[in-house]
Amino acid sequence: MSRTPSTARRLTAYAAVLLLAAAAPAAVDPPAAGAAADPVTVTVNARAGLATVPDTALGVNHAIWDQQLGSTETSDLLRAAGVRMLRYPGGSYADIYHWRTHTAPGGYVAPNTDFDTFMAAVRRVGAQPMIIANYGTGTPAEAAEWVRYANVTKGYGAKWWTVGNENYGNGHYGSAWEADDHPDKSATQYARLVVEYADAMKAVDPSIKVGAVLTMPANWPDGLTAGADPGPWNQTVLSLAGPKIDFVDVHWYPGGTAAESLARTGHIPDAAWLLRQQIARYAGPDAGRIGISFTELNVGDGQNTQPGALFLADAYSGLLEQGVFTVQWWNVHNGIGTVSEVAGQTDYGDFGMLSSGGCTADGSVCEPPFNTPFAPYHGLSMMNLFARAGDQFVRAGTDQPLVTAHAARRPDGSLAVLLLNKDPDTAHPVAIDYAGFTPADEAPTVHTLANGASGVATGRSGSATARTLPPYSLTTLVLRPAGAADGRPGAPGRPTAGAVTDRTATLSWPPAAPGGAPIAKYEVYRQQGAVSEQLGETAGTSLTVGNLDPGTRYTVNVLARDTAGRVSWSSPPLTFATGSPAASTCAVRFSKDTDWGNGYLATVEIVNTGPSAHDGWTLTWTWPTGWQQVSSGWSANWSQVGTEVRVTSTADNRRLAAGGGSTSVGFVGAYSGPNVLPGAFRLNGTVCTTR
Questions:
Q1: pLDDT in tens, 624-669
Q2: What end-to-end distance do the CA atoms of the chain give, in Å?
Q3: Contact 36/426 with Cβ under 8 angstroms?
Q4: Are 296 and 251 in contact (CB under 8 A)?
Q5: Keywords in UniProt for this one (predicted)?
Q6: Checking DSSP bridges between strand 655-656 and strand 614-615, what pairing results, if any?
Q7: Which of 163, 388, 478, 587 counts the highest number of beta carbons within 10 A?
Q8: What percent helix, strand, coil does the chain show, rounded to 5?
Q9: Closest to 365 in 3D by CA, of 378, 376, 379, 349
Q10: 135: part of which helix (H) or strand (E)?
């Protein structure tokens, strides 16, 4: 599969040549909405803790073609929306930009966009910078001098530095939009030079964090191996540069229609899992220290209208729940593109969250006045009202795909619930159930962003348990607890898993600090969607849990309960996967061979290791996601119902001799989201050892 690069998105030089619109287009009334008859069930589980919101969570991109990059008006708008990280110098421009001369040969550099102006804006916003060192046309020495200027000469304390931007787009895999002057454009060469960059930059300031560019699982060129690289881009970069980097940098443009982009936020948990699996497998010792940043994302349709706001809030929440330390929208200002109408609103095809104030080439359509906020800006403002630094995300879910829920528990004991109605035509009533939290009997604070609104509306109304969500809307409820939280124990520390087998795991965790009474016990819960299943309890800080399913992913939390019955906040989550039996009467080797980005060839070797021969066999497995399938197969009879795959023998291979008789079969696999491989296989009902 190939990707068509959105060069114009990254390389638009907008500000010096665009004129302010003389008048904004007239507003279009939103379409009349129907209402669903049955309420959507929303479940919020305060016992099922996810990641804590970092102080770098809400980010956006700044670019050197934006002459208003350092303006007070722009900075004030970003500060008001809660921006806490700003990226510079702007996408693919980073690989042609030379900071000392403030030039970008082949591109446009606006006045008043130099590094010092950017840093003044960062400080005005109250944010931290993330800086992209020039890999494509720069050198490690140039990057090291930038660190010296920033942190030694000027004392800016710039902590976060990425080596390059989308460097897999340098032609190595066929598509070329990213500048790269190196004769060797391989992933191997990029990784080797990342090591040189990291060494040179940290020699100047050992306290900085250096990141390397990875690709999003199931997005091009994920899965592709080119040239003499030992594997795909992520594997190659992590294997060689992993010990030297502190974080990885990922971009995500899900593409498709507005509805398709909004549905693809469901890929986030599996994508995050795969990224962490890749880091753990390839990045060497202490790989757990490596963080994940998402520094560019946007939708392919409805960038300035409600799909952009909905996607931003849903994607930022989903990624931050998974422990990503920053999410950054592309872009602050970008420029007018293809104009269309989306759900009754004019969309200017502008990847900026603030208007550039420009017009189409023929002058027929103009954007609203410069710096007018578009819908994604209001979506970011909603995120700032919903999830604040220090809050802990907790599980929330619904029984309606077009209604999404997120929740965060605050240090003062209150709870914020974000409800997204992705249906452009229908209002959905919701009934909200709470576990581990009892809301006060009062009207909650309600923040609402309706389709076409000029900002977030705030008031107090209704109840904590029932509400009707307008079409294409974002709603945040802020709820106070029914009782005081004083005296509860502190949360246990993040658990770890040891001695993991196919059926058991030993979980350990740092103890919780007692509150108003001694701690009586710890309770261990598994997250099942938005429902918690208790796996056990103990008076100690370690528990061996059993009766687990082979080849299965588990996310668990630990809670402390004191002798007065008060329960702590949940620990940070732990996600681990069980394996296969160490000994079985069968074995399976699943090999993913040639991969082209949305499909692959696979070979499955089946071995009868038992004492009795098989005269006819059936192999089964379950795909971990709903977007994986067997397209076709050979050397067996293949079928799939839902996520269940069934493979049966043919006349040629039905007999598997005892003590090692084997056969090999194959199939063409397809996937439209992160391709998480199956973890357990059963031969004639017996769980096999996976080799």
A1: 999 999 999 999 999 999 999 999 999 999 999 999 999 999 999 9
A2: 29
A3: yes
A4: yes
A5: Carbohydrate metabolism, Glycosidase, Hydrolase, Polysaccharide degradation, Signal
A6: antiparallel
A7: 163
A8: 20, 35, 50
A9: 349
A10: none
